[in-house]
Amino acid sequence: MLARRKEYVEARPGEEVPPEDGLSWRKYGQKLILGEKYPREYYRCPRRCCEATKMVQRIETEPLTFEVTYGGSHSCGQETKNQNEELIAVQQTKCDEVGRGAGQIFESYIHKMVSTPNNSYNNSSTGVEFSNSNSVFNIPNSDFIPTPTSSPHPDMDFPFDYSSFTHLFGQDVPDNSGNDSLAALAAEVYKLYEENGKLNFPHRYDKQAENSRPSNNVGDQS
DNA sequence: AGCCTTTGACCAGCG
DNA sequence: TCGCTGGTCAAAGGC
After folding, report:
1. DSSP letter, residue A31
2. Every domain of chain A and the residues it spans
3. Protein CB footprint (7 Å) on chain C nucleotides
4. Burial level of A182, CB count in 10 A (0-12/13-18/19+)?
5. CA of A28 to C1' of B10 (A)
6. A55 touches strand C (CB under 7 A)
7. What is the DSSP string of A97-165?
8. Gap from A149 CA to B6 C1', in Å?
9. Per-residue flag: A71 CB under 7 A of strand C
10. I need a surface site. Which of A52, A70, A122, A160 has the fewest CB within 10 A?
11. pLDDT at A78
12. How far, in Å, is the CA of A122 from the C1' of nucleotide C7?
């Protein structure tokens, strides 16, 4: 039986399709599932020798959220080859979400980081690298942040404390007592981080990545 | 020509 | 065995 992994992704603002994952897929079916408002879509890798598949199910209660179930892995090597493109796509999503508030954006990132096996965030200019391929985020000099054993959606279900943030960003994070919400904390951290120029943000993306942005699967269909 | 999406038909597992 | 359901096939048409 092929291993499966499940992710939850949010549509970009103003769109109603899931963001691309940097890999190419060919749709081979669509079916309305009992009890679901939206049809489930079936995709497989366009390379015949590759057994990778994925299913995309829009969630009725959260219409801008999609449950993506991956089956098998890309034996064609596509995942490795496109990892940088995937990161660019993630950054674009990050860029798009800025307008929705830093809190949401940060939560979104955490979701992506913890729910995507073998995914990583690697900013070579800052030396910041996040990875959950080995059950812990691979932060230099730190193994502080545990990886949940299951997808955290819709709630954060793993501990994320101030010391974690401090280690994550390499500097002190101000005490946010008085407002315990993760979003508020994330907003604070995000702001701090952005002010220090440690994020590769929208303007940089526009300059460098428009041509290399992954062409899309589900996300760009209309 | 080749690859894509769409969509109804078909198949297999399960109760 | 039968019917239901999820997953896949494959023909048709578009780009």
Report:
1. E
2. 1-9+25-78
3. 4-10
4. middle
5. 14
6. yes
7. HGGG-HHHHHHHHHHHHHHSTT-EEEETTTTEEEE-TTSB--BTTB---BPPSS---SS--S---HHHH
8. 37
9. yes
10. A122
11. 62
12. 36
Name the nucleotide with the smallest C1'–CA separation from A27: B5
Q: What residue has its CA nearest to the C1' of B5?
A: A27
**Whole-number distance in Å between A49 CA and B4 C1':** 18
Return d(Cα A56, Cα A85) in angstroms, integer. 21
Whether omega before A154 lies within 30 degrees of 0, making that bond cis, reads yes
Residue type, A133: S
Q: What is the pLDDT of residues A25-62, one digit of tens each?
A: 899 999 999 988 899 999 998 877 788 889 999 988 88
- The pair of three-digit structure tokens given for residue A15, joined into one six-digit string: 């769109």
Q: Which nucleotides of B are covered by protein (CB under 7 A)?
A: 3-9
Strand B-proximal protein residues, Cβ less than 7 Å:
A 24-31, 46, 217, 221
User: Residue A116 CA to nucleotide B3 C1', Å?
Assistant: 29
Amino acid type, A112: K
- Predicted structure pTM score: 0.47
Q: How far apart are the first and last CA of chain A?
A: 34
Residues A79, A68: contact at Cβ < 8 Å?
Answer: no
pLDDT at A191: 55
**Encoded tokens for A95:** 């860029």
CATH of domain A1-9+25-78: 2.20.25.80
Looking only at the bridges linking them, the beta strands covering A120-123 and A65-71 are unpaired
